[in-house]
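Hey, quick one: can you model this chain's 3D structure?
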Amino acid sequence: MRALSQSELPLSFKTQGAISPLPADLSEVFDSRDGLLSVNLDGMVLNCHFFGADEIEFDLDPREVASADKARALIGFMEILGTATRKPVILTHENAREAIILQWPEPEMPTPSLS
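Sure thing. Here's the predicted structure for all 115 residues.
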């Protein structure tokens, strides 16, 4: 949360449907499962619903990624998350974890064997 709040991205946090200050401690948000963080990313809206502390999940409408600039902004957002958490960030189709569209950092390609 610190990385996002320190970014210049417009953020909105709601609890019980009302705008609230960004929480200092996310454990309460995960425990209550009541919280919605919205990020305005170059006109695209990404929403985090805080389903569980073991995984950060944002949703977006893929129709909003309508240009190369918006795709670059999305990749930059993935980099912010990955750098802050020191974990890979994966973009998938909805409800299809195995259907990976994009990953940050890019997975390393295996070195071909010359034997």
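One thing worth noting: The CA atoms of residues 36 and 49 lie 5 Å apart.
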